[in-house]
Amino acid sequence: MDATVDRKRLYVPAAAGFYEAFGPLSHTLMRVALGAILIPHGFGKVFGNDAVHAANNFVHFGWAFPLAWAYFIGALEFFGGILLVLGLFTRAIALAFAIEMAVISFAVLWPHWEWAHHGMEYAFFMGLIAIAVFLGGGGPYALDNRMTKEF
Length: 151
Known about the structure:
- By secondary structure, the chain is mostly helical.
- The chain has six helices and no strands.
- The protein has helices at residues 16-22, 26-47, 50-61, 66-86, 90-109, 121-136.
């Protein structure tokens, strides 16, 4: 990825150095932010009572073992969130979160698009961030960079 910024295109050419220095951190910031947001959600499902509430969605879907699904999602959010913060198995975890957010957005919250009605905009946005992380990888400070291969 070329970190050179064309100063002639900037309204504030002096900002080019800032963009060049910190621009490569964009995927790292997205990855860490998404993981940090999801960790407490998963913690409540795995170690608290939030799994019972989450299981209601799976009952609504008609899926067998709704509580098991709720604990699975909790484990994904908690442990996957930690992995995402660390940048380990980044693409696989980001893909799992993109799928989860698509289900939440379009199967649970659809068609509401405003926060006052438990809208889907936040889950949809987190899904887009997960897709960006999946496509772009974990960034320069991901533990994936220490592995010989990645997803």
